[in-house]
Amino acid sequence: MERNIKLLYVFRFLRTFTIFAAVVLPFFQLYDVSQTQFYLMQSIFAVTIVVLEVPSGYFADLKGRKTALLVGVLFIAVGYWIYALGDQIAVFIFGELLLGIGYSFISGADEALAFDSYQALDRQEEYKQFEAKSNSYMALSEASASVLGGLLAIISIRTPIIAHAALSLLTIPIALLVVEPDRRTNSSTVSTVRPSIIDAARTTLVGNKQLRWFVLYGAIVSALTHTAVWLTQPYYQLVDIPIGWFGVLWAAQSLALGLFSRVAVRYESALGRRAALTSLPIIGVVTYIGLAIYPTLAVLPLILGFYFVRGVQTPMLRQAVNELVTSDVRATVLSINNLVKQLLYAALGPIVGVAVDAYSLRTGLFFSALLYGVLGAAILIFATSVDADRQATSELSHQPVDS
Questions:
Q1: What's the pLDDT tens digit per position in 335-353?
Q2: What is the rounded CA–CA span in Å between residue 115 and residue 113?
Q3: Coil, helix or strand at residue 373
Q4: 277-290 tens-digit pLDDT
Q5: Global pTM?
Q6: Residue 84 in contact with residue 199, Cβ under 8 Å?
Q7: Which domains, and CATH codes, for the chain?
Q8: By the 8 A CB rule, do 233 and 246 touch?
């Protein structure tokens, strides 16, 4: 189990060593892919995950998380090679489909492996630190890969993608080396749930009000920051930053994400869970507005607001969700959680892309601020119906749950 945890750190580091990420939009522009088409491709990826997310999570619970992980990395490797060799949007879409299949099998499986490994060691309370630490490693990985990608782009804009496709093959032996943990099927925090997709979905989205709030909140905040990430490279172009600096800037943002992830636990402890979660959509919306009002190099550091939200929310929400479910349905519930995130992103991403293409990047930023402001306000209002008492809400994941 100790080795599992170390292997999962390495797995996440390799999985996020995205050499091509810092120059992906200039690469697509080379093949006349518009912002709307790019978000449509992202939506195809997201919809593929939506279709397979819960079945793949159930597959992980039924056949083993290790098996699901191995299936996922094989699809991902093939998907990236198709990407690397493609030169038209139809090929890119096929690559996105394969990547969507692969990531749907990974999604939930690696989290369940990590949590169950800690639980087998009777150290499940350390899982939050695992998420925070692995997020910081992933940010360091992405930062290093971004600098390398910028340098490789000097050779050609396609070189970083070929290099990433080659690197994706290294995740296969990691998946082969992990060991399936023993599972515990009871918990003091929840009622017993039968290990089926329907029952897990009912518990996640209907029966457990607290769990439902965490899932919906995570979907909104995730979409808020996900669409923002893919607007940063056009923003670099808007303020006339040379493409040679894209990798350096992307790396700086990734390093900041890692630092923010490491302070997530302290941020939650200092403010309390409810205040910490309330602050995140507000920070995201203010960042959109600030970037839209005065697009110059001087306001470029505001982009870090999105990375603060990303870095802080992930460890808090994953810990909260994991504490509310049992081992026998953990991967299924985590997949439902990721499904809702992907579904919302698939719906909203192309709308933001249309706003950018039809009007301007600034208009797209203002529109995003309005869109996520309304959604953020709605989910925070919903929080009051979950628990009106401030102290109970700040300890939401530690209270008994009525299923």
A1: 677 778 878 888 888 899 8
A2: 6
A3: helix
A4: 889 999 999 999 99
A5: 0.67
A6: no
A7: 2-398 (1.20.1250.20)
A8: yes
